[in-house]
Amino acid sequence: MFPINLDLTRLSVALVGNGQATLNRLRQFDGDGAKYVTVYSEDPIPELAEQAGDRLQRYLPNSADVNAASIMFIIDLDLKKAAELASIAKAVGTIANVEDVKQYCDFSSPARIQRGDLMITVSTNGKSPRLAGRIRRAIEHWLDPKWSERLSILSAEREKWKAEGADMKQLLEKTDDFIDRRRWLP
């Protein structure tokens, strides 16, 4: 697997599912500022229908719908329907994830910790999402909220150094020195 962060303010997302797990993912997308999410659900729980609003399509996507999406997440569907949708995605070139069914996934979603723009992800390559989640919770205790401010301070310094003409090697050295002088890391 190759790690990547996607800008969901630019990509179209098809979210397929009916229940609480689909609702959780939709809330995550909404919290991340995703702009182009379409929710496909034959039988959505009321909270999912409410959160989706006019983005809700009360059917499973067809090949044209899947083709229109950059990325598709399939959650809490029975395995047969999920496999069919994954097959359609493969045929039209849309990358897809069938939650917790690795053989149908083009990608996996790592557990993540976020403090402002600082994001740390943990992945087991789909082998144990529960372990990834527990490691994430352990890191959360160490990565307190002040890291968001630290990143902002460091980013401003880095921009200043770049404006002063620092090359990549100098940026690395200055960054290490800045972090070390403040004893941010052991």
Describe this structure in words.
By secondary structure, the chain is α/β, with parallel strands linked by helices. About 45% of the residues lie in helices and about 15% in strands. The strands form two sheets. It has a five-stranded parallel sheet, with helices on both faces. Helix 4 (about 80-90) links the parallel strand 4 and strand 5. Helix 1 (about 20-30) packs parallel to helix 2 (about 45-50) and helix 6 (about 145-165) packs antiparallel against helix 7 (about 170-180). The radius of gyration is 20 Å and the shape is elongated. The protein starts with 11 loop residues before the first strand and ends with a helix. About 20% of the residues are buried. The mean pLDDT is about 95.
